[in-house]
């Protein structure tokens, strides 16, 4: 849908992004068109308003729906149910571009795509025809519910339960830090259905017993509401079980590995924005009779930032392509991309903010907003400590050690 509707208009209107900042190598004409469309959208509909949204905690539902009209709510889904049938690389390119406008809003769009992708892969024909058209167009907003007040990184300690009673499952417990909580129409909830068994249910917003905590007051990601989600004897029809009983952890991890990749992509977009703003500013601002860009120390700082951005982007995009291959342990690549991109891009934004001196601290320049957003990205969708843990586990615990006698 996206590819077809974009073809002509973008190719006629688009100016090629030749900038070394975009780091585009090996992208197809379609991929460049998606990128251009997303960049244009970010520039027109997100960036001019992002500081205001951030300041007033505004959830820009109308703008998110406009993104839905471009197919950005159904990146992974097959055409049959109103999706675009693209892969992880296209998702990465699109979310990076949207993040140059507003990381927080792009991150919510990324979480929504994660849920829609899970519905696409694990949903029955019936579930898909019931919900997917609305999810794909952003008529229905979605939330992913894994984290609990007492189990963040340790998903095994989950205490939300679902017990079968007649034709319904009765859900009890609560989920913490839920993006879209209180606003979303559908909640994808990981819950315990047995001592060692986790299953995933889709809970609809008007379910009796479903309630929400206060809107959390956060450092970043302020344009998306985050709330505690409570389940008090919520009756969930059997037909709302996603996948099979006991498949919940598989579903959760399938979602998270894609999510880690798109969060990496959001980090790239923030760094790209910061680097572009800083290099422009350095060409205008004069101190001691010369432009900032002519001080070697500052030039080198920015050169290093561009090298890091390019390297993080190449890593993320290569990992994105691997994620769509049928290979073992591919979640490791998502963890590597998440660690590299969020750590390095946070450093880039920090260095770029420094170039503005005192102006970098002012809200209207947008740098402090990106600085706060990048700080968020090192924690969400699996902390960077868990990324290191996952990578180390693969290094030390999965290979038979060869003993030399």
TrEMBL record:
Cellular-component GO terms for this entry: mitochondrion
Acyl-CoA dehydrogenase/oxidase N-terminal domain ranges (all copies): 28-137
Pfam family, one: Acyl-CoA_dh_M
Reactions catalysed according to its record: (2S)-2-methylbutanoyl-CoA + oxidized [electron-transfer flavoprotein] + H(+) = (2E)-2-methylbut-2-enoyl-CoA + reduced [electron-transfer flavoprotein]; propanoyl-CoA + oxidized [electron-transfer flavoprotein] + H(+) = acryloyl-CoA + reduced [electron-transfer flavoprotein]
Pathway named in the protein's UniProt entry: Amino-acid degradation; L-valine degradation
Cofactor(s) listed in the protein's UniProt record: FAD
Domain Acyl-CoA dehydrogenase/oxidase C-terminal: 246-395
Domain of life: Eukaryota
GO biological process annotation, one example: branched-chain amino acid catabolic process
Residue ranges of every copy of the Acyl-CoA oxidase/dehydrogenase middle domain listed in the record: 144-234
Keywords, in A-Z order: Branched-chain amino acid catabolism, FAD, Flavoprotein, Oxidoreductase
GO molecular function, one term: flavin adenine dinucleotide binding
Family to which this protein belongs: Belongs to the acyl-CoA dehydrogenase family.
The protein's name in its UniProt record: Isobutyryl-CoA dehydrogenase, mitochondrial
Native species: Blepharisma stoltei
């Amino acid at each position: 849908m996206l590819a077809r509707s974009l073809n002509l208009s973008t190719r006629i209107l688009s100016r090629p992004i030749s900038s070394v900042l975009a780091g585009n190598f090996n992208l197809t004409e379609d991929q460049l068109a998606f990128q251009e469309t997303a960049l244009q959208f970010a520039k027109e509909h997100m960036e001019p308003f992002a500081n205001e949204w951030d300041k007033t905690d505004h959830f820009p539902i109308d703008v998110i729906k406009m993104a839905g009209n471009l197919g950005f709510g159904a990146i992974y889904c097959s055409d049959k149910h109103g999706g675009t049938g693209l892969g992880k690389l296209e998702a990465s390119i699109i979310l990076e571009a949207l993040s140059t406008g507003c990381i927080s809003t792009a991150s919510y769009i990324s979480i929504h795509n994660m849920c829609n992708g899970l519905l696409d892969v694990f949903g029955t024909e019936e579930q898909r025809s019931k919900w997917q058209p609305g999810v794909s167009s952003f008529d229905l907003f979605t939330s992913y519910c894994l984290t609990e007040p007492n189990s963040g990184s340790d998903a095994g300690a989950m205490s939300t339960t679902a017990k079968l009673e007649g034709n319904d499952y009765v859900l009890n417990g609560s989920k913490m830090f839920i993006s879209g909580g209180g606003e979303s129409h559908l909640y994808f909830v990981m819950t315990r259905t047995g001592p060692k068994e986790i299953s995933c249910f889709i809970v609809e917003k008007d379910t009796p017993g479903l309630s929400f905590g206060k809107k959390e007051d956060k450092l970043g990601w302020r344009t998306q509401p985050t709330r505690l989600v409570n389940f008090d004897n919520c009756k969930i029809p059997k037909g709302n079980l996603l996948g099979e009983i006991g498949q919940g952890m598989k579903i959760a991890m399938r979602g998270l590995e894609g999510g880690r990749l798109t969060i990496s992509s959001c980090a790239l977009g923030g760094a790209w924005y910061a680097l572009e703003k800083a290099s422009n500013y350095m060409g205008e601002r004069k101190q001691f009779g010369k432009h900032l860009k002519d001080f070697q120390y500052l030039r080198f700082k920015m050169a290093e930032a561009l090298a890091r951005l390019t390297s993080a982007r190449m890593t993320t995009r290569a990992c994105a392509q691997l994620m769509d291959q049928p290979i073992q342990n591919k979640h490791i690549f998502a963890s590597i991309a998440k660690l590299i991109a969020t750590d390095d891009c946070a450093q880039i934004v920090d260095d770029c903010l420094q170039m503005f001196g005192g102006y970098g601290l002012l809200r209207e320049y947008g740098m402090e907003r990106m600085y706060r957003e990048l700080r968020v990205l090192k924690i969400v969708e699996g902390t960077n400590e868990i990324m290191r843990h996952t990578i180390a586990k693969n290094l030390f615990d999965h290979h038979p050690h060869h003993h030399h006698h």
